[in-house]
Give the backbone structure.
Amino acid sequence: MSGYRARHRVVVLALDGLLPFELGIPQRIFGRARTAEGRPLYEVVTCSIRPPGRVETDADFAVLVENGPDALATADTVVIPASYELGPVFEEGRLTDELAAALGRIRPGTRLVSICTGGYVLAAAGYLDGRPATTHWSHAEHFQRLFPRIKVDADVLFVDDGDVLTSAGVASGIDLCIHLVRRDHGTAVANDVARRTVVPPFRDGGQAQYIQRPVPEPQVATTTAARAWALARLHEPIQLRDMAEQESMSVRTFTRRFREEAGISPGQWLTQQRVERARHLLESTDLSIDQVARDAGFGTAQSMRQHLQVALGVTPTAYRRTFRSWSGHDRAVGSGNAPVGSGS
Protein backbone atom coordinates (compact mmCIF):
# COMPACT_ATOMS: atom_id res chain seq x y z
CA MET A 1 0.00 0.00 0.00
CA SER A 2 3.05 2.28 -0.19
CA GLY A 3 1.62 3.93 -3.31
CA TYR A 4 -1.05 5.48 -1.12
CA ARG A 5 1.33 6.78 1.53
CA ALA A 6 1.32 10.31 0.14
CA ARG A 7 -2.46 10.69 0.13
CA HIS A 8 -3.54 13.75 2.03
CA ARG A 9 -5.56 12.64 5.07
CA VAL A 10 -8.72 14.63 5.80
CA VAL A 11 -10.32 13.98 9.18
CA VAL A 12 -13.89 15.22 9.62
CA LEU A 13 -14.98 15.89 13.21
CA ALA A 14 -18.60 14.84 13.78
CA LEU A 15 -20.17 16.63 16.75
CA ASP A 16 -23.60 15.94 18.24
CA GLY A 17 -26.29 17.99 16.54
CA LEU A 18 -24.39 17.96 13.25
CA LEU A 19 -26.05 18.68 9.92
CA PRO A 20 -25.90 15.51 7.78
CA PHE A 21 -25.58 17.50 4.56
CA GLU A 22 -22.48 19.30 5.78
CA LEU A 23 -20.97 16.14 7.22
CA GLY A 24 -21.08 14.59 3.75
CA ILE A 25 -19.46 17.49 1.88
CA PRO A 26 -15.78 16.62 2.57
CA GLN A 27 -16.28 12.96 1.61
CA ARG A 28 -18.08 13.92 -1.57
CA ILE A 29 -15.59 16.58 -2.72
CA PHE A 30 -12.23 15.27 -1.51
CA GLY A 31 -13.29 11.69 -2.13
CA ARG A 32 -13.79 12.43 -5.85
CA ALA A 33 -10.38 14.04 -6.41
CA ARG A 34 -8.18 11.65 -8.37
CA THR A 35 -5.02 11.53 -10.44
CA ALA A 36 -5.14 11.17 -14.20
CA GLU A 37 -4.67 7.44 -13.60
CA GLY A 38 -7.73 7.35 -11.34
CA ARG A 39 -5.98 7.04 -7.98
CA PRO A 40 -7.45 8.92 -4.98
CA LEU A 41 -5.61 12.06 -3.91
CA TYR A 42 -7.20 12.23 -0.46
CA GLU A 43 -8.18 9.83 2.26
CA VAL A 44 -11.25 10.99 4.18
CA VAL A 45 -12.17 9.60 7.59
CA THR A 46 -14.76 10.70 10.14
CA CYS A 47 -14.26 10.78 13.89
CA SER A 48 -16.04 11.95 17.03
CA ILE A 49 -14.74 13.43 20.29
CA ARG A 50 -15.68 10.21 22.10
CA PRO A 51 -14.87 6.55 21.52
CA PRO A 52 -16.41 5.09 18.32
CA GLY A 53 -20.18 5.00 18.41
CA ARG A 54 -23.39 6.90 17.83
CA VAL A 55 -23.41 10.63 17.03
CA GLU A 56 -26.73 12.49 17.00
CA THR A 57 -27.71 14.73 14.09
CA ASP A 58 -30.29 17.47 13.71
CA ALA A 59 -32.37 15.05 11.60
CA ASP A 60 -34.47 12.06 12.63
CA PHE A 61 -31.49 9.70 12.45
CA ALA A 62 -28.07 9.31 14.02
CA VAL A 63 -24.78 8.27 12.43
CA LEU A 64 -22.40 5.55 13.57
CA VAL A 65 -18.85 6.90 13.65
CA GLU A 66 -16.12 4.28 13.72
CA ASN A 67 -13.21 6.52 14.79
CA GLY A 68 -12.57 8.28 18.07
CA PRO A 69 -10.55 11.46 18.73
CA ASP A 70 -7.23 9.67 18.15
CA ALA A 71 -7.87 10.08 14.42
CA LEU A 72 -7.34 13.84 14.77
CA ALA A 73 -3.65 13.21 15.47
CA THR A 74 -3.28 11.58 12.04
CA ALA A 75 -4.83 14.43 10.02
CA ASP A 76 -3.22 16.64 7.40
CA THR A 77 -6.48 18.60 7.29
CA VAL A 78 -9.22 18.71 9.94
CA VAL A 79 -12.73 19.72 8.84
CA ILE A 80 -15.34 20.78 11.40
CA PRO A 81 -18.90 20.89 9.99
CA ALA A 82 -21.72 22.81 11.65
CA SER A 83 -23.60 21.58 14.70
CA TYR A 84 -26.79 22.84 16.35
CA GLU A 85 -25.72 21.55 19.76
CA LEU A 86 -22.49 23.42 20.44
CA GLY A 87 -23.63 24.46 23.92
CA PRO A 88 -21.02 26.64 25.67
CA VAL A 89 -19.03 26.95 22.45
CA PHE A 90 -21.90 28.88 20.84
CA GLU A 91 -23.28 30.49 23.97
CA GLU A 92 -20.11 31.48 25.83
CA GLY A 93 -17.27 31.05 23.36
CA ARG A 94 -15.55 28.31 25.37
CA LEU A 95 -14.77 24.67 24.71
CA THR A 96 -16.03 21.81 26.82
CA ASP A 97 -13.30 19.74 28.46
CA GLU A 98 -14.13 16.83 26.17
CA LEU A 99 -13.88 18.93 23.02
CA ALA A 100 -10.71 20.68 24.20
CA ALA A 101 -9.07 17.32 24.87
CA ALA A 102 -9.99 16.11 21.38
CA LEU A 103 -8.69 19.23 19.65
CA GLY A 104 -5.52 18.98 21.69
CA ARG A 105 -4.63 15.88 19.68
CA ILE A 106 -4.29 17.89 16.45
CA ARG A 107 -0.66 18.18 15.37
CA PRO A 108 0.91 21.64 14.91
CA GLY A 109 0.80 22.67 11.26
CA THR A 110 -2.38 20.73 10.48
CA ARG A 111 -4.68 22.61 8.11
CA LEU A 112 -7.93 23.58 9.83
CA VAL A 113 -11.24 24.04 8.01
CA SER A 114 -14.73 24.90 9.25
CA ILE A 115 -18.10 24.80 7.54
CA CYS A 116 -20.76 27.27 8.69
CA THR A 117 -21.01 27.39 12.51
CA GLY A 118 -18.14 24.93 12.79
CA GLY A 119 -16.13 28.15 12.87
CA TYR A 120 -17.30 28.66 16.46
CA VAL A 121 -15.24 25.63 17.45
CA LEU A 122 -12.10 27.00 15.80
CA ALA A 123 -12.76 30.39 17.38
CA ALA A 124 -13.32 29.03 20.88
CA ALA A 125 -10.07 27.08 20.56
CA GLY A 126 -8.21 30.30 19.73
CA TYR A 127 -7.28 29.31 16.19
CA LEU A 128 -8.97 32.37 14.69
CA ASP A 129 -7.58 35.05 17.00
CA GLY A 130 -6.36 37.98 14.93
CA ARG A 131 -7.39 36.30 11.71
CA PRO A 132 -10.07 36.99 9.09
CA ALA A 133 -12.95 34.51 9.13
CA THR A 134 -16.56 34.03 8.16
CA THR A 135 -19.61 32.04 9.18
CA HIS A 136 -23.28 31.89 8.18
CA TRP A 137 -24.50 35.44 7.60
CA SER A 138 -27.33 35.04 10.14
CA HIS A 139 -24.76 34.38 12.91
CA ALA A 140 -22.11 36.88 11.82
CA GLU A 141 -23.00 39.61 14.32
CA HIS A 142 -23.20 37.13 17.19
CA PHE A 143 -19.91 35.56 16.06
CA GLN A 144 -18.21 38.96 16.08
CA ARG A 145 -19.57 39.90 19.53
CA LEU A 146 -18.54 36.57 21.04
CA PHE A 147 -15.07 36.65 19.48
CA PRO A 148 -14.05 40.31 19.12
CA ARG A 149 -10.46 39.43 18.16
CA ILE A 150 -11.63 37.86 14.89
CA LYS A 151 -11.98 39.95 11.73
CA VAL A 152 -15.40 38.69 10.64
CA ASP A 153 -16.38 39.10 6.98
CA ALA A 154 -20.07 38.30 6.57
CA ASP A 155 -20.17 38.94 2.82
CA VAL A 156 -17.93 36.16 1.49
CA LEU A 157 -18.53 32.48 0.79
CA PHE A 158 -15.28 31.48 2.45
CA VAL A 159 -12.03 32.89 3.82
CA ASP A 160 -8.68 31.30 3.00
CA ASP A 161 -6.10 32.43 5.54
CA GLY A 162 -3.49 29.86 4.61
CA ASP A 163 -3.55 27.10 7.20
CA VAL A 164 -6.94 28.08 8.62
CA LEU A 165 -10.01 28.36 6.38
CA THR A 166 -13.63 29.14 7.25
CA SER A 167 -16.78 29.00 5.14
CA ALA A 168 -20.19 30.60 5.31
CA GLY A 169 -23.43 28.64 5.57
CA VAL A 170 -24.18 25.13 4.37
CA ALA A 171 -23.48 24.88 0.61
CA SER A 172 -20.55 27.27 0.83
CA GLY A 173 -18.73 24.31 2.36
CA ILE A 174 -18.79 22.86 -1.16
CA ASP A 175 -17.21 26.04 -2.51
CA LEU A 176 -14.48 25.90 0.12
CA CYS A 177 -13.67 22.21 -0.38
CA ILE A 178 -13.47 22.65 -4.17
CA HIS A 179 -11.25 25.67 -3.56
CA LEU A 180 -8.94 23.49 -1.48
CA VAL A 181 -8.78 20.85 -4.21
CA ARG A 182 -7.96 23.63 -6.67
CA ARG A 183 -5.31 25.02 -4.33
CA ASP A 184 -3.75 21.59 -3.77
CA HIS A 185 -4.00 20.12 -7.28
CA GLY A 186 -4.99 22.83 -9.77
CA THR A 187 -8.07 23.76 -11.76
CA ALA A 188 -8.22 20.61 -13.90
CA VAL A 189 -8.74 18.36 -10.88
CA ALA A 190 -11.10 20.81 -9.17
CA ASN A 191 -13.17 21.21 -12.33
CA ASP A 192 -13.42 17.44 -12.70
CA VAL A 193 -14.66 17.12 -9.11
CA ALA A 194 -17.18 19.92 -9.71
CA ARG A 195 -18.48 18.25 -12.88
CA ARG A 196 -18.92 14.95 -11.09
CA THR A 197 -20.72 16.72 -8.25
CA VAL A 198 -22.80 18.81 -10.71
CA VAL A 199 -21.89 22.11 -9.10
CA PRO A 200 -20.08 25.16 -10.49
CA PRO A 201 -16.31 24.94 -10.03
CA PHE A 202 -16.23 28.56 -8.99
CA ARG A 203 -19.26 30.44 -7.66
CA ASP A 204 -19.31 34.19 -8.21
CA GLY A 205 -19.56 36.63 -5.38
CA GLY A 206 -20.30 36.12 -1.72
CA GLN A 207 -23.12 35.31 0.65
CA ALA A 208 -24.32 38.91 0.66
CA GLN A 209 -26.42 37.99 -2.38
CA TYR A 210 -28.37 35.45 -0.29
CA ILE A 211 -29.32 37.77 2.56
CA GLN A 212 -33.01 38.59 2.49
CA ARG A 213 -33.68 42.30 2.01
CA PRO A 214 -36.50 43.90 4.04
CA VAL A 215 -38.26 44.98 0.84
CA PRO A 216 -37.04 43.03 -2.20
CA GLU A 217 -37.23 44.88 -5.49
CA PRO A 218 -39.82 43.19 -7.72
CA GLN A 219 -38.78 42.04 -11.18
CA VAL A 220 -35.44 43.89 -11.22
CA ALA A 221 -33.29 43.53 -14.30
CA THR A 222 -30.32 41.23 -13.84
CA THR A 223 -26.70 41.58 -14.89
CA THR A 224 -26.45 38.08 -16.33
CA ALA A 225 -26.14 39.20 -19.95
CA ALA A 226 -23.34 41.61 -19.08
CA ARG A 227 -21.39 38.88 -17.33
CA ALA A 228 -21.80 36.51 -20.29
CA TRP A 229 -20.71 39.31 -22.64
CA ALA A 230 -17.61 40.00 -20.54
CA LEU A 231 -16.65 36.32 -20.24
CA ALA A 232 -16.63 36.03 -24.04
CA ARG A 233 -14.07 38.84 -24.36
CA LEU A 234 -11.88 38.67 -21.27
CA HIS A 235 -8.87 39.15 -23.54
CA GLU A 236 -10.10 42.63 -24.46
CA PRO A 237 -10.10 45.82 -22.37
CA ILE A 238 -13.50 46.00 -20.65
CA GLN A 239 -14.78 49.20 -19.12
CA LEU A 240 -17.55 49.40 -16.54
CA ARG A 241 -19.63 51.50 -18.91
CA ASP A 242 -19.33 48.77 -21.56
CA MET A 243 -20.85 46.22 -19.19
CA ALA A 244 -23.58 48.63 -18.12
CA GLU A 245 -24.51 49.24 -21.75
CA GLN A 246 -25.22 45.53 -22.22
CA GLU A 247 -28.06 45.89 -19.72
CA SER A 248 -29.12 49.37 -20.87
CA MET A 249 -28.39 50.73 -17.39
CA SER A 250 -26.52 53.69 -16.06
CA VAL A 251 -23.14 52.85 -14.55
CA ARG A 252 -24.44 53.69 -11.09
CA THR A 253 -27.52 51.45 -11.38
CA PHE A 254 -25.52 48.64 -12.96
CA THR A 255 -22.89 48.73 -10.22
CA ARG A 256 -25.57 48.58 -7.50
CA ARG A 257 -27.44 45.73 -9.19
CA PHE A 258 -24.22 43.85 -9.83
CA ARG A 259 -23.24 44.02 -6.15
CA GLU A 260 -26.71 42.88 -5.11
CA GLU A 261 -26.54 39.86 -7.42
CA ALA A 262 -22.87 38.86 -7.21
CA GLY A 263 -21.89 40.18 -3.79
CA ILE A 264 -18.80 41.93 -5.21
CA SER A 265 -18.08 44.84 -7.54
CA PRO A 266 -17.84 44.40 -11.33
CA GLY A 267 -14.12 45.16 -11.15
CA GLN A 268 -13.50 42.50 -8.51
CA TRP A 269 -15.53 40.00 -10.52
CA LEU A 270 -13.56 40.71 -13.70
CA THR A 271 -10.29 40.18 -11.86
CA GLN A 272 -11.55 36.87 -10.45
CA GLN A 273 -12.53 35.65 -13.90
CA ARG A 274 -9.20 36.70 -15.40
CA VAL A 275 -7.28 34.93 -12.67
CA GLU A 276 -9.28 31.75 -13.32
CA ARG A 277 -8.67 32.10 -17.06
CA ALA A 278 -4.94 32.54 -16.47
CA ARG A 279 -4.84 29.48 -14.21
CA HIS A 280 -6.53 27.38 -16.86
CA LEU A 281 -4.14 28.51 -19.58
CA LEU A 282 -1.06 28.03 -17.41
CA GLU A 283 -2.14 24.48 -16.62
CA SER A 284 -3.44 23.34 -19.98
CA THR A 285 -1.37 25.11 -22.66
CA ASP A 286 2.24 25.80 -23.65
CA LEU A 287 1.53 29.48 -24.29
CA SER A 288 4.22 31.88 -23.12
CA ILE A 289 3.62 33.86 -19.94
CA ASP A 290 3.21 37.01 -22.05
CA GLN A 291 0.58 35.33 -24.25
CA VAL A 292 -1.31 33.97 -21.25
CA ALA A 293 -1.36 37.48 -19.79
CA ARG A 294 -2.80 38.87 -23.02
CA ASP A 295 -5.37 36.09 -23.46
CA ALA A 296 -6.54 36.41 -19.85
CA GLY A 297 -6.96 40.17 -20.24
CA PHE A 298 -4.16 41.34 -17.97
CA GLY A 299 -2.30 42.94 -20.84
CA THR A 300 1.21 42.44 -19.52
CA ALA A 301 3.04 39.65 -17.74
CA GLN A 302 3.87 42.04 -14.91
CA SER A 303 0.20 42.85 -14.34
CA MET A 304 -0.73 39.17 -14.34
CA ARG A 305 2.14 38.38 -11.99
CA GLN A 306 0.90 40.96 -9.51
CA HIS A 307 -2.68 39.70 -9.62
CA LEU A 308 -1.72 36.02 -9.26
CA GLN A 309 0.61 36.89 -6.40
CA VAL A 310 -2.27 38.58 -4.58
CA ALA A 311 -4.87 35.91 -5.40
CA LEU A 312 -2.73 32.77 -5.14
CA GLY A 313 0.48 33.77 -3.42
CA VAL A 314 2.61 32.46 -6.32
CA THR A 315 4.05 33.70 -9.60
CA PRO A 316 2.71 32.47 -12.96
CA THR A 317 5.89 30.47 -13.52
CA ALA A 318 5.68 28.80 -10.12
CA TYR A 319 2.00 28.02 -10.65
CA ARG A 320 2.69 26.41 -14.02
CA ARG A 321 5.60 24.41 -12.62
CA THR A 322 3.35 23.07 -9.85
CA PHE A 323 0.23 22.25 -11.88
CA ARG A 324 1.09 22.19 -15.60
CA SER A 325 1.99 18.52 -15.83
CA TRP A 326 -1.11 17.07 -14.18
CA SER A 327 -1.47 14.50 -16.96
CA GLY A 328 2.15 13.39 -16.61
CA HIS A 329 3.85 11.01 -14.22
CA ASP A 330 5.10 13.73 -11.89
CA ARG A 331 1.49 14.35 -10.79
CA ALA A 332 1.07 10.74 -9.71
CA VAL A 333 0.57 9.96 -6.07
CA GLY A 334 3.84 9.62 -4.21
CA SER A 335 5.83 11.73 -6.68
CA GLY A 336 8.32 14.37 -5.66
CA ASN A 337 5.98 17.19 -6.74
CA ALA A 338 3.57 16.93 -3.84
CA PRO A 339 0.60 19.35 -3.89
CA VAL A 340 0.41 22.25 -1.50
CA GLY A 341 -0.43 21.03 1.97
CA SER A 342 -0.16 17.39 0.97
CA GLY A 343 1.45 16.32 4.19
CA SER A 344 3.75 14.04 2.21
In short: The radius of gyration is 21 Å. Confidence is low (pLDDT under 50) at residues 1-5, 212-219, 326-344. DSSP finds 14 helices and ten strands in the chain. The CA atoms of residues 47 and 67 lie 4 Å apart.
